[in-house]
Amino acid sequence: MISVKNLHKYFGKLEVLKGVNLEVKEKEVVVVIGPSGSGKSTFLRCLNKLEEPNDGEIVIDGIPLSSDTNVNAIRREVGMVFQRFNLFPHMTALENIALSPQIVRKLKKDEAVAVGLELLRKVGLSEKAYEYPERLSGGQQQRVAIARALAMKPKIMLFDEPTSALDPEMVGEVLAVMKDLAQEGMTMVVVSHEMGFAREVGDRVIFMDEGVIMEAGTPEALFNRPQNLRTKAFLSKIL
Amino acid sequence: MVIDWSVAIRSLPILLKGAVITLELTAGAVAMGVVIGMFMALARLSKRWPLRAFATAYIDFLRGTPLLVQIFLVYFAAPQLFHFQPPDKYPYIAGILAMGLNSGAYIAEIFRAGIQSIDRGQSEAARSLGMTQAQALRYIILPQAIKRVIPPLGNEFIAMLKDSSLVAVIAMEELFYSGKLIVGNTLQSFPIYGTVALIYLAMTMTISRILGVVERRLGKSDIR
Which of A89, A104, A152 minimises the CB distance to B224? Predict the structure, then answer.
């Protein structure tokens, strides 16, 4: 589903990604962990071209991402959820969700609204359809953001630290939605430090540091028997 | 010369007529400025360098030269350059044109700042949903930016209203020019120019009050 070979990314002279290789199979849930500045968010953002890689090869669902690929076509298939939600503040929850199906997928308005209401029900926020984002808690906003990404019927979902900006009591509700999604067979790449989630839902955990993948394995193996010294050091700090 | 306030009172209808022309000029100029400003702001933020260069040159020239000189350029120099006989209403047209071109440059900067003030996450979210850059601009960025530019746009309107007195130099009968004519006939400088000043003040104060109300309304529904 996702194939990444030798991915390099520079910010000016700083090399943030130093040759990342990764294959993600359909329906797989990959959790990416690592210290801040390790390049994990940049890596994720390269997967839907919010960042332009300097070198390497990315193939999404059989389509190579090169400079002349239609980037909007890729983004339609790859949903993204951000750390800071990025809901559109001038639209209600429902409008946030129903907008892009209308203007990108060319759905009729009532069809898009039906999709939106269904997704709100799915994330447990039916009663908040007509609220503006400012009236929602962080957890609710993030659930709307997930629904908004799902409205495009993506084949892959990327999550960039989806619970890091949330108050602790709201983390659970967002993770529950993500877990449902994983169980429905969504292909997911999740940058997150939620170990419970990684253990329970993740098929594979990847430890990134200094712009490369240092270690990868099943959650059980990586958390309980880390091989790499840096992985050990990092896990000892956060577990 | 004895100060004669009755002249001011008798002149009030003429002065108010001038004030209406002043408002017309200003409204026309700002309307034109909004159209030019929107185009120039987008050109300045464009990825295409010729557009950027054109907008930058336009903005630099109109902000870097005096409005008075620009008025003369439009009123006297343009007919010479383009070989046309100025029509009867030319002072009016030239006044709006010069002020509109000028305010277009300032409004372009207001719009640019408004667009750039919107969090980058907004356009990233829009783009990640598959929207094109144009769609992101139209549905996500501009609706939010417009709310933010209304207060500075109001200030630009007030500044233009005051600067419109400059078109008196091309015999445009707006408020200040009307006052000047009356002073020429009656020599009552203080009552007339004083009244002219008060009329300007009444207009600017009214507009800034209205702005204050609008701003408070917008503030209520603003988020970040």
Answer: A89
Q: Does B131 touch chain A (CB under 8 A)?
A: yes
Q: What is the DSSP string of A116-139?
A: HHHHHHHTT-GGGTT--GGGS-HH
What CATH number does residue B57 fall under?
Answer: 1.10.3720.10
List the single best residue of A86, A97, A141, A164 to mutate versus B (max B Cβ within 10 A).
A86
Candidates A100, A134, A149; nearest CB to B131: A100
Using the Cβ of B128 and the Cβ atoms of chain A, whether some distance falls under 8 Å is answered with yes
Q: What is the domain count for chain B? A: 1
Nearest alpha carbon to residue A32 among A17, A19, A43: A43
Q: What is the CA radius of gyration of chain A?
A: 18
**Who contacts A75 (Cβ-Cβ below 8 Å, separation ≥6)?**
A48, A49, B127, B128, B129, B130
- Which chain B residue lies closest to A47 (C-alpha atoms)? B128
Q: Specify the length of chain B in residues.
A: 224
Q: Quote the pLDDT of residue B224.
A: 42
Determine the Cα–Cα distance for residues B36 and B150; give it in Å rounded to an integer: 16
Q: Tens-of-pLDDT digits for all 224 residues of chain B?
A: 789 899 989 999 999 999 999 999 999 999 999 999 999 999 999 989 999 999 999 999 999 999 999 999 999 998 889 988 888 888 899 999 999 999 999 999 999 999 999 999 999 999 999 999 999 999 999 999 998 999 999 999 999 999 999 999 898 889 999 999 999 999 999 999 999 999 999 999 999 999 999 888 877 655 44
Q: Which value does ipTM take for this structure?
A: 0.90
Q: Which residues of A touch B131 (CB under 8 A)?
A: 72, 100, 103-104
Predicted local confidence at residue B220, as pLDDT: 62
What's the 3-state SS for chain B? CCCCHHHHHHHHHHHHHHHHHHHHHHHHHHHHHHHHHHHHHHHHCCCCHHHHHHHHHHHHHHHHCCHHHHHHHHHHHHHHHHCCCCCCCHHHHHHHHHHHHHHHHHHHHHHHHHHHCCCHHHHHHHHHCCCCHHHHHHHHHHHHHHHHHHHHHHHHHHHHHHHHHHHHHHCCCCHHHHHHHHHHHHCCHHHHHHHHHHHHHHHHHHHHHHHHHHHHHHHHHCCC
Query: pLDDT, tens digit, for every residue of A211-226?
Result: 999 999 999 999 999 9
By C-alpha distance, the chain B residue nearest A154 is B129
Instruction: List Cβ neighbours of A161 (8 Å cut-off, separation of 6 or more).
Output: A41, A83, A191, A192, A193
Which pTM does this prediction carry?
0.85
What is the extent of the structural domain holding B163?
5-223
